[in-house]
């Protein structure tokens, strides 16, 4: 687990807010969600935020800074590229690795994976999403290095 | 840079929905919004295509021990159904 985000540490000291939340104050709740949103987004994210224009961008915030380079897909099936895919999967945290291995390598269904690993639907998808996003970044880097 | 309609999805949000989209897990409205975004955004089309290619490539990594996996899978099935599952 990463260390608690500064937003969370601040919250722990913010007892009026905690009291308002206990009292069921919706505005306090929405304010809290707003303040935590950046931290939650960092946690959920599978992609590299640096690939997108920052929130401060006047017109295209959150859009691609530069479109991804299309992959030469036949090159992805070479022995060398496949070895990179295998290594990238092997380097994933355990939960992500188990899910992507069973789903994408062994071609199990999501129901089978949920049952075998004792995961909820949602958790299975979150792990698969993070795993695929990370492996995709590794492949993109590999293909970029090979580009003339 | 993407060209998009005013109420379009942000790409950074769209790419986080790619797995749910491919899994058929997006609610109808979100699915329509996602597909409309693709119409306006070549960058996200490329991204989606990359993920599909990656999944196809991963499938090539399956080794002969798949036979053993197949056995494991059947055993798991039998195990669960024996428990009345």
Itemize the secondary structure elements and their pairings:
The complex is a heterodimer of chains A (about 150) and B (about 80).
Chain A: H1 6-12, H2 15-22, H3 26-44, H4 79-90, H5 94-105, H6 110-117, H7 121-146
Chain B: H1 11-14, H2 18-22, H3 28-40, H4 42-59, H5 66-82
Structural description of this entry:
Chain A has helices at 6-12, 15-22, 26-44, 79-90, 94-105, 110-117, 121-146. With 148 residues, chain A is mainly α. Chain A has a single domain, classed as Winged helix-like DNA-binding domain superfamily/Winged helix DNA-binding domain (Arc Repressor Mutant, subunit A, Orthogonal Bundle). Chain B has 85 residues and is an all-alpha fold. Chain B contains 5 helices and no strands. In chain B, helix 3 crosses helix 4. The longest helix of chain B has 18 residues, at 42-59. Chain B is elongated, with a radius of gyration of 19 Å. The A-B interface holds A 44-47, 49, 52-53, 60-71, 73, 76-77, 81-82, 85-86, 89, 100, 104-108, 110, 112, 115-116, 121, 125, 128-129, 132-133, 135-136, 139-140 and B 1-2, 4, 10-13, 15-16, 18-20, 23, 25, 41-44, 46-47, 49-51, 53-55, 57-62, 66, 69, 73, 76, 80.
């Amino acid at each position: 687990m990463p260390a608690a985000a500064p937003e969370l540490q601040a919250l722990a000291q913010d007892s009026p807010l905690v009291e308002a939340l206990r009292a069921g104050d919706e505005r306090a709740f929405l304010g809290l969600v707003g303040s935590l949103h950046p931290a939650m987004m960092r946690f959920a994210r599978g992609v590299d935020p640096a690939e997108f224009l920052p929130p401060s961008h006047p017109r295209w915030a959150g859009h691609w800074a530069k479109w991804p380079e299309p992959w030469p897909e036949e090159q992805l099936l070479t022995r060398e590229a496949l070895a990179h895919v295998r290594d990238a999967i092997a380097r994933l945290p355990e939960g992500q690795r188990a899910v992507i291995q069973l789903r994408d390598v062994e071609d199990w269904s999501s129901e089978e994976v949920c049952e075998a690993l004792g995961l909820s639907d949602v958790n299975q998808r979150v792990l698969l999403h993070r795993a695929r996003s990370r492996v995709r970044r590794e492949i993109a880097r590999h293909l970029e290095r090979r580009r003339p | 840079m993407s060209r998009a309609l005013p109420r379009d999805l942000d790409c950074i949000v769209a790419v986080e929905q790619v797995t749910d989209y491919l899994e058929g897990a997006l609610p109808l409205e979100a699915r329509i919004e996602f597909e409309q975004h693709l119409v306006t955004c070549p960058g996200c089309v490329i991204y989606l295509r990359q993920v599909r290619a990656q999944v196809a490539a991963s499938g090539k990594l399956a080794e002969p021990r798949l036979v053993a996996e197949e056995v494991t899978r059947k055993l798991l099935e039998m195990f669960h159904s024996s428990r009345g599952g």
